[in-house]
Structure formats: C-alpha cells, structure tokens
Amino acid sequence: MLVDSIRKFNPNSEIVYCTDRHSPNINGVTHRLEFDGNPHEIMTFRLNSFASSGIGGPAIYLDTDMLCLRSFDPEKFLESKDLYICERSFGGDALFNGNFRGMNYLEYDQMPLGKVYPYLACTTITRNSEVWIELADVCDGLSEKFRIWYGDQEALKIVAKRKSNGQLGFIPEHTYACLPENMNYVSQATFLHFKGPARKGLMIDFYKKIMEL
Questions:
Q1: Minimal CA–CA distance to 120: which of 150, 80, 79, 161?
Q2: Which residues in the chain show pLDDT less than 50?
C-alpha cells in the first residue's frame, strides 16, 4: 500500500526496499536491499540496514505503515540542510509508560512523551546514507533493550544534539507523519502514519480512497 501510494503521486521515484533475506518481494519497488542482521532486534536492524544501503544522494526514509498523499521531492529540502528529522506534534503531554510491552524503561516512566522522545524516526530526509552510520553506531552502544524498541528515537535525540543549526532541520509530524484521526491536518499532510495495531484497519480504508482519486 505504501509503494502504491508513492507511485501514484511520485511515479518516477526510485523506491528502495530495505529488508531481511526472507521477507517477500513487493511489487513496484526499484531495488531490494537485504541486510543480514537480527530482525528481532528491530531498532538496530533497521538503522544498520539503512547505514549499509550505500544510498549516495538525497532520499526520504519511511516506516512501512505509512501512505503518501501528494508529490514530494527530498532534494528541495536539502538545499540548505544535510538532515531533516520529524518533530513530534501529537501526544507530547502524554505520560511515558516505563513498562512498555513488559520491558523496563523506568528511567523515563511518567515523564512527558515530548521530553522523552521529541523526535520520531518514521520520516527522515538525508543528503546521503552516512548519517545512518552515526545513528546505528549510537544505537549499538545503548543498552540491549533499546535494540528491541525506542532505540531509533533514542539515537535521534543524541545525534540531534551533536548537529549544528546549519546541518539539521525539522519537519512536523502533523505534515510528514500525520496520524489519521487528526482530521484537521489530514487534508494538508504529505504522509499519513498508521502506527500501532488499532490504526492498521484505517490504513486499508485510506488506501482505497487514495487509489480511487
């Protein structure tokens, strides 16, 4: 569904599918890049997969549970910055659950989500793939629990502090990873994000509407 929606509005896009050696092929992708890591440690797997992709030019990196709503050119963003990361728009005041999925993140328990993780890794625009090497190295150095969950956001937070204003820019979640229930933003959004099991059914409904346009 993601690939179909990208092709609808960006028909000439080069779409790179980063995956393991066992996942099925996806119609419409330009390249399939397989990474030989541990897919159960999803955070380090994804960051190292992007780091090893060797993509030498401007690109946008997306979660798979997203849909594209309009044309998009990452090069236009990168005229003045080397990296754009997604800044949280929704739920920043919600309190973080330090016992998420039975794992211990109690150092952040009951802190505002916007303070714990102000940046999201679902949409990232980079001049090349080199920043993923830095992000992967940071994540690899974190405690083991972050390899399974939250490691990408933890690494983004750390790397963002290292970057100068001239290198780093921000894109808002409500435009580049909009949650489908936020109807005030959906019509202006470039990408929708259907994160979490409860939104997956909505993704199918939105996909059908998009492909009928």
A1: 150
A2: none
